[in-house]
Amino acid sequence: MANDLVGDLRDIVERERARFEVPGCAVLVVADGRIVLCEGFGLRDLARNLPVTPRTLFPIASSTKTFTAALCAVLVNEGALAWDRPVREYLPDFRMRDPVATEQLTVFDMLCHRSGLPRHDMLWYAARDELTRAQIVARLRDLEPNRGFRQTWQYNNLLYAVAGELAGHVAGTSYEDAVRRYLLDPLDMPRTNFSVDVTRADDDAATPYVSASPGEPVKDVPHARLDLIAPAGALNSSVGELAPWLLTLLGLPVDGRPPLLPESVLSLMRAPAAPLPEDSPLAAGRPVGYGLGLIVEDYRGHRLAHHGGNIDGFSSKVGAIPEAGCGVVVLANRDGTALRDALPCLIYDRLLDLAPRSHGERFLALETAVRQGRDQSARYTTSTAGNLAPVRPPHDYVGRYRHPAYGEVAVLAEGDGLAGRYRSLTGRLDHRHLEVFTFLVDLGGVETPLPVQFFHDLDGDVTAMAVSLEAAVAPIRFERVPETAHLTDTVLNALCGTYRLGPLTATVARRADGPLVAMIAQGDFQELKPVRDLVFRFDQSRVEFTGEGELRTPMGEFIRSE
User: Fold this and answer.
1) Is 115 helix (H, G, I), strand (E, B) or coil?
2) Which of 30, 106, 413, 414 is spaced 20 to 30 Å from 292 by Cα?
3) Mind listing the pLDDT tens digit for each residue in 33-81?
4) CB 424 within 8 A of CB 126
5) Rounded distance between C-alpha atoms, residue 310 and residue 341, angstroms
6) For 468-512, where are the E strands, in sequence order?
7) Are 557 and 544 in contact (CB under 8 A)?
8) Cα–Cα–Cα angle for 288, 275, 27, nearest 5°?
9) How far apart are alpha carbons 562 and 560 in whole angstroms?
10) Ramachandran category for residue 278: left, alpha or beta (phi over 0 → left; psi -120 to 50 → alpha)
11) Dihedral sign, Cα of residue 80, residue 84, residue 85, residue 90
12) Distance between CA 494 and CA 509 in Å, rounded?
């Protein structure tokens, strides 16, 4: 019977791997409380024809969140952390834009995604090699929420990064070291790690693959470096090393030792804390809620707790049905593949002796529709020009634009057109209509269009740009940064003096710390803020110095008198 089960499971995996055109995958199955399958299928490296083995390391992406939630729960059990204490009591500088969330947000709220803040994933994705986790925490105060605090469930990677940072803080170490101390070392998981570099240097690591469009062959892409948000998705592991973790999630002993996580911790993690949308086509069963680092569903009469992950070139799923003593782990080296969703359903049906269903066909149809829809949307976004001509020459847009949380976008001249650079993302800026462009960037091996709109003031000067970086809120507005390299001391000093318009006087001077200030006709001195060339903003007005010794203002043209 056991041999029949293992043979059936192998047949299911190979059939579905071929259906979903996944280069390689590793599968772990626990049935009746014991490991019945822990194997690799297909290739971890197509170019070198290297097979997937039980030792092959894969990024597990957001399946890391269950580890983060478990770490926090252990620290609560130890008394180092409290579920109901606000985050700001542990991290005094913590702030959200919503003052209610600032005062009341707890680690429990972060772990079950009910902060009111949408994903804002482009912030961390583009800044993976530039920011620190502490800097991410500092930028939360400038990110726009789209829901009220605790109003609804909204997935958020940034706040999982904060939860991990907080856990490391109260444990007196880093998040990574705390996970190793409390979870990985006790479960004997030495090769499981948070580092792309460590994983790539391993003698048995999977290569990431993506397919840009349906029907296209896969291509390899760089590993995504996830140190910045490690608590949300940076773990790399193998099915061999995830075996004790899956047994732990099932509340079972490992190598004869008592379960690492007590039932009180596991029950809390599996208890629905935030309701989930009921109409998700990717759900394995009927959504019940999101616990702590676990999605809870009713799967054909059985309570299923699981979490999946997707990152450039990889997909994962770790799930368990505790009352039946069974669980499944799927690790695959292809981006966004629904193989990770179909395989567990097919395997649970076999383990639970349920009538078979065509999960492979259903999930493949969904995956295909998602990929086709992405392509169609990209084509539509880049083609809706509307026959509306450009408003101004491209050079007028060249410059730097800044947002307090997202940082800086640079618009560059490229041939007769424009290009953009946002942290690690670069690409063309293709004109669509009027002052709207399409910023074409590579996201995990797939060219993705980001709509961009420029803005100008009443005087026609370009003042800002807005980029669609987060679908749940309005496009993110970046204010133009004045170019000041030409404003040397020599230039600024030459502008100082007295200017007259009949009996009216304008005085220009320099403040002790350097900037120009002016008093025009009457009132107090106000700072002259650079706009471009020798154009400045004066309070709510615009002034310009000319080569003929004039100071043009809303009151008229003042002539240099000395």
Assistant:
1) coil
2) 30
3) 999 999 999 999 999 999 999 999 999 999 999 999 999 999 999 999 9
4) yes
5) 12
6) 476-481, 497-501, 504-510
7) no
8) 50
9) 6
10) alpha
11) positive
12) 10
Distance CA 439, CA 428 (A): 6
Question: 281-323, pLDDT tens digit by residue?
Answer: 667 889 999 999 999 999 999 999 999 999 999 999 999 999 9
The letter for the amino acid at 454 is F
Mean pLDDT by 10 residues, the chain (562 residues): 85 97 98 97 98 98 98 97 97 96 98 97 93 94 97 97 97 98 98 97 97 83 95 98 98 94 96 88 85 97 97 98 98 96 97 95 91 76 70 95 98 96 96 94 92 93 96 97 93 95 95 94 90 91 91 94 80
Distance CA 199, CA 182 (A): 21
Asked if residue 420 lies in contact with residue 485, where contact means CB atoms within 8 angstroms, the answer is: no
For helices 339-351 and 2-19, what crossing angle results, to 10°?
160
Spacing of C-alpha 290 from chain mean position = 19
As given in the structure block, the two tokens for residue 107 are 């680690």
Please name the residue that has the structure tokens 């995956």.
367
Concatenate the DSSP letters of all residues of 434-458 into one string: TTEEEEEEEETTEEEEEEEEEEE-T
Reported as type and span, the H/E element at residue 128 is: none
Return the structure tokens found at 439.
């910023």
Helix axes 359-383, 2-19, angle to 10 degrees: 20
